[in-house]
Amino acid sequence: METDYGRLVWAGAYAGLLLIAAGSDAWSRRIPNGSVLAIAGLFLLGLPFGWPVASWAACLGAMVLALAIGFPMFAAKLVGAGDVKLLAAAALFTGLDHLLLLLVATAVAGGVLALLALTARPYVPALAAAGWPRLRPGVPYGVAIAAGAIYAGWNAGLFRITQHLVHIDLGP
User: Fold this and answer.
1) Left, alpha or beta for 27 (phi > 0: left; psi -120 to 50: alpha)?
2) 61, 96 in Cβ contact below 8 A?
3) pLDDT tens digits along 136-167
4) CB of 142 within 8 A of CB of 21?
5) What confidence score (pLDDT) does residue 172 get?
6) Which one of 25, 58, 71, 119 is CB 3.0 to 4.6 Å from 54, fit for a cystine?
7) Residue 80 per-residue DSSP state
8) What are the two backbone dihedrals, phi and then psi, of residue 14, each rounded to the nearest 5 degrees?
9) Are the CB atoms for 91 and 43 separated by under 8 Å?
10) Please, which pLDDT band fits residue 45 given cuts at 50, 70 and 90?
11) What is the C-alpha separation between 81 and 150, in angstroms, rounded?
12) Is 165 exposed, middle or buried (0-12, 13-18, 19+ CB in 10 A)?
């Protein structure tokens, strides 16, 4: 059997770019536009190579719907602009079929992060006195978006590594 290493590379690049955006958000509370553009570019580059996504219309529809959901949240100052852009880029990969799963998984991961932030709040002064870097207030929602995108992508089959049988002719 042959393993489809091309899909392994694409899946690793997608997860890696999501983790870079999440790490940047966790450290500086900013999601660089470059990482969001890289995720969108990976989507565009991956389509001709057989990246297993829904149709163009479903993917673009999911992105537009994610922007339509995220923009009012940004306007109400509930999330940052980078969070909305990262969610829209991740929605490109899920399409309309798995958009609800992306949103729910992101919300659950965000709730877990919020609980962790509330639990850690009393220990922040002691950690700062011990030499730990002072964390910024709030929840790095890019981490939740990355977790939700990886979970939704896993369920959508983006990370499924296929193996192909190779026919070997042993005849005369």
Assistant:
1) alpha
2) yes
3) 777 899 999 999 999 998 888 877 766 555 55
4) yes
5) 63
6) 58
7) -
8) -60, -50
9) no
10) confident
11) 20
12) exposed
Question: Residue written as tokens 């002719």?
Answer: 169
Whether 150 contacts 18, CB under 8 Å: yes
Q: pTM for the whole thing?
A: 0.85
**Statement: residue 53 has pLDDT above 90:** no
Non-local (6+) Cβ contacts of 124 within 8 A are 134, 135
Q: What is the mean pLDDT of residues 17-45?
A: 93
Q: Are 17 and 43 in contact (CB under 8 A)?
A: no
Looking at residue 79, the DSSP 8-state letter turns out to be S
Calpha distance 154→137 (Å, rounded) = 31
**Residue with token string 């002072």:** 134
Question: How does pLDDT run across 102-137, given as a tens digit for each residue?
Answer: 999 999 999 999 999 888 888 888 877 887 777 777
Measuring CA to CA, which residue among 165, 164, 168, 166 is closest to residue 4?
Answer: 164
What is the gyration radius of the CA atoms in the chain, in angstroms? 19
Name beta bridge partners: 39: none
Identify the residue whose tokens are 């991740």. Answer: 90
For residue 140, which of 26, 30, 35, 27 has the smallest C-alpha distance?
A: 26
